[in-house]
Structures are given as structure tokens and as C-alpha cells.
Request: fold
Amino acid sequence: MIKKCLFPAAGYGTRFLPATKAMPKEMLPILTKPLIQYGVEEAMDAGCDVMSIITGRGKRAITDHFDISYELEHQIQGSSKEKMLADIRHIIDQCTFTYTRQNEMKGLGDAIFKGKVLVGEENPFAVILADDLCVNPDGDGILTQMVKLYEKYKCCIVACMEVPKEEVHKYGVIEGNRIEEGVYMVSNMVEKPDNDKAPSNLAVIGRYVLTPDIFDVIQNTKPGKNGELQITDSLCSQAKKGMVIAYKFKGRRFDCGSVDGFVEATNYFYDLEKKKAE
Ligand code: G1P
Reply:
């Protein structure tokens, strides 16, 4: 049912300058794999086979990454390096990639709205923010967990996690009633509230399942925090109608949009590889 996944990837990645001056932040590697490839693999595991990427100026490397590189493949054919391209080749063979540009940085709500032309208005779709790198070593990936939950509730779902009170100002924060273990019916959402004004410490992280009626809602949403169109505000309108679920996912999330989170993720995956090799 959920076959399409949207990847807003037009942001500048200023926290990683100068590395991101000429290179998209989504292409920063954790070990040998770019961040966005982790996201695409998570979406594939959840059953998606159309990856719709919202790009911008200077993001061509993403398009090239998800395309065949004949020269390179020819060059390393038959060598021990060939297997290093096996995963990405598999992705390219299994998925369709579609792209559009967000020409102006007008917020995540605007980026998602730009994706309307790619994901259409017939079916629910997923959204992954690639700099939130999510893993669940004990079972289903985070998006798979959410897709399964969608089958039960058939409404918008946001992934959330508890964060320390002094960090809530970095996130969209939800207020809601627990309806089952780890699942909340959302009644209110606030984008990056002051720490002392947040309705809870349940922070939204970069995984969403959205129903296509969200596009009309975005169109009627006014710019919010930082003068940008915030998906949190559009989802808040839906939440007031009882149409948004927050899900405390099983697994771990690395904030790879920050240097600390990026290094943490690198160490995590490095240790994992080491253990595999033992
Ligand atoms: C975005 C969303 C925010 C969410 C966060 C998760 O913010 O606007 O609601 O909590 O992603 O990473 P950003 O980090 O892009 O500023």
C-alpha cells in the first residue's frame, strides 16, 4: 500500500561546512555508505519501491549516486572491488527514482508539498529525513514498524522519542494520549518550542507516514517557526481532528545532522562491521 517514499534533501547542511560547500549533506558517508542510501534501504525494507527525492541546487551527486556508472562498473569488473557496488546496483535495479527541486528554502512543509507531483494524491506515502539515521538491530526497521501501524490506524503517523527537557527546542514536540504501548493519539504539536513551554518531551524525528489529504492542509498552513512552512503545523491541524498518531519507535536514532550524532553513528556502524568480521 505504501510504495512511495519522499526524501526532502534540499537543505544546505550548514552545520557541516565546509564539507557541504560543494557536496550534498545527504552524501556524507557513515563508513562507506552515504546517509541517503541508509534511508533508501530502510524504505525498501518497508516495501517502498519508488524513491522521490526533493533536491535543490548543488545536489546532483544524489542523482548520480542512484544511477548506473558504466565506466566505473566496467573498470572494476572482475576485481575484488566489484562487490562494493553490489548493494547500490541492487537498489538501482529494484527502485524507481523520481526527482523535483525545491527552489527556495521555505521549510519542510514546503519541501513535502513540492513532492505532491511525485507521490500523487491517491495513496499514503512515507517521508524520511536522511540525516536522522535510524536502526533497529532487534527487528523491523523504523519505517517498517510505522507501515505496520498504518495498516491498523489508517492515518498520519509521526515517529517520536523521548528527549531530555533541555533539548526539546530542537524538535517538533507532540502532546497526546497513550492509546496503546508506545502509541499516542496526538492532540497538539509545536515546532521547536522553548524548553520551558514544550507540551511534553516527546520529540518528532524524521520519519512520517502521511495521507495525501496533507497536501490540501499544507496549502492552507501559514508560515510558522522561522517564517517557514512547517509540516508540524500542518500535522497539528490534522491532529486537532484526531487524525495523527505518534509512535515511539523501537530502535535507535542518530542525529547525523550534527557532528556529535554523525560521529556516534560512525562509531556504531564501525563496531558493528568489526563484530561481523570477527
Ligand atoms: C525537522 C522538523 C522537526 C523534527 C526534526 C527531526 O527539523 O521540522 O519537527 O523534530 O526535523 O529531525 P530540522 O531538524 O530539519 O530543523
